[in-house]
Amino acid sequence: MLTKSPTAEHTFYIIDFDSTFTKVEALDVLGEISLIGRPDRDDVLDQIKAITDRGMSGEISFTESLDLRLNLLKAHRDHLPALIETLMGKISDSFQRNKQFLSENADHIYIVSNGFKEFIVPIVTSLGVRAENVFANTFVYDETGAIVGFDAENPLSANGGKSQVIRNLNLDGEVYVIGDGYTDYEIRASGLANRFYAFTENVLRPRVVEKADHVAPSLDEFLYHNHLNRSQSYPKSRIKVLLLENVHPVALQLFEQEGFNVEIRKGALDEDELIEAIRDVSILGIRSKTTVTRRVLEHANKLMSIGAFCIGTNQIDLTACTERGIAVFNAPYSNTRSVVELAIGEIIMLIRNIVPKSNSMHKGVWDKSAKNSFEVRGKKLGLVGYGNIGTQLSVVAEALGMEVYFYDAVDKLALGNARKCKTLDELLAIADIISLHTDGRKENKNLISYREFALMKNGVIFLNLSRGHIVDIPALVDAIERGKVAGAGVDVFPQEPKTNNEEFINALRNLPNVILTPHIGGSTEEAQENIGNFVPGKLLEYINNGSTYGSVNFPELQLPLLKNSHRLLHIHANVPGILAKMNNIFAKYHINIHGQYLKTNEQIGYVITDVAKEYADEVVEELKGIDQTIKFRLLY
Ligand SMILES: NC(=O)c1ccc[n+]([C@@H]2O[C@H](COP(=O)([O-])OP(=O)(O)OC[C@H]3O[C@@H](n4cnc5c(N)ncnc54)[C@H](O)[C@@H]3O)[C@@H](O)[C@H]2O)c1
Predict the structure, then answer these.
(1) CB within 6 Å of ligand 1 — which residues?
(2) How far is the CA of 467 from the centre of ligand 1 (A)?
(3) Alpha-carbon dihedral angle through residues 245, 249, 253, 254, given to the nearest 10 degrees
(4) pLDDT in tens, 281-321
């Protein structure tokens, strides 16, 4: 652990059990076990919950609510082992993570609960809490072992019991209470505690939160707030994630599962709105309509990473992000398969001449003939660009019996039986069907124009599902009108409407055997879900582990999982000598380095150093102080 041992010899921690130490209310779980096989089980469980609520709201006394619940439970001593086993699996995640804190401070930790010792003691002692520091009720059994009541002498079976127990403990020092219920707050209200932390990891009760000195979404937050030893360098609940533009709900779920504080907004934000929203955000998720400018980034004081839930990242000022040490990730192949399937579908529709036939049918014309309708089997498919999409299409097309040829600007491995063409001209001359899958770099403007159409076979089928400016539209219109191109599928255009309300204006409208689609090659539910999974995966790897594999602006490093070390992540301007300066600091403090990784790009250097856990806080300060440091982060 990095920070020094707990501040106060004289601080005592009073911790609640149900819904705090564990995720659940133990008596509810006991009911689920003891009522197994009863036809009215669900009804009785509902009644038990309702009584719990009536007790909590003060409608009935706590003693009465306990009495009523035990009567309904019909529980037996024999049910307790199963209850304890279930509760063992329901210990709150942040307690599980921080068992070192619990065992190291066992002298100062008390569990004070209106639950029962019979199940509380085995659970809390498993994480190092002392049995003698557990204050709770005890069951009363009849001669058969059935649970028939509770020890009514115990103050915890009545209202105000917790305060009475704490008073009797006569603790000499600061007292902090952590709990989710009103009875926990009452300890503070009666002047017996210095602070009350509303624990909201499992349940959030507004009435309790309102009264709290501090809200602790996890035990990590409590420990962080008090500068105590903890398992996370920075509580995840403090990491704010802002997701814009309706990204897939799976992304929200993934970030929430991780314990982050997530805010979602449906639409895009303009520059001023984003400046306002981004101030305390650590992770920003956008799609293509939010522009992240240098001005926005100047206000993004906490921003560590941006996830583009799409393919393109033109909407983000990547240079400014890199200068500020903000890693950007996107989803380069989450929709590859969707584009490929649309291309295959269109190829079949076009080569069968289905579009004019379907249009005629809608006008009542029955034109049954095989003329100008062909199979795809045995036809030569020419792929221009053999990247993610080109290669995938190559594989699927071969499965349909097509002969695949490809041309790529760089040397690429041919998959399956695909054949490489040495030049674009060679490919254009050989193919029956030509499909474009190059990237959208500027030099590809009008890659296919009059000259290229002239090189193609007569009656070729032509597809562009890549980028609009790659095809010279007047040249394509001319080729279609002359019959050079027998069918075309076009999904992308040099000028595309910005919204669904804008008219689509293009010379390709109303030509025969032409399928026009509004840039939806990659737009499927599956692709959205893939993106929703993929981008958070990358962001979480970066936040939790430091890995930048797949980043569009950071030097890419795939790091091993962190084990028994602390990981120091240092991002700096790429100038000579930084690594040496870092290692001088490690040497000066005799730090044992377990592993070190360095990668640079033109703008920045990224150094990860895994070190033994014991070292002085000054090391961190000195590392942060190295000239040209952009960002420094610590993981453990
Ligand atoms: N219609 C849609 O909705 C949609 C969806 C996803 C991707 N796309 C577009 O599809 C295209 C391909 O995507 P990808 O993921 O396969 O990209 P990629 O970067 O994996 O592959 C592009 C390939 O094109 C090659 N290339 C570039 N210029 C070339 C040229 N002049 N001649 C020959 N080869 C050239 C590159 O070397 C690379 O291998 C991109 O333009 C992308 O923007 C469109």
Answers:
(1) 311, 333, 335-336, 339, 384-390, 407-410, 437-440, 444, 447, 465-467, 491-492, 519, 521-522
(2) 8
(3) -70
(4) 999 999 988 999 999 999 999 999 999 999 889 899 999 99
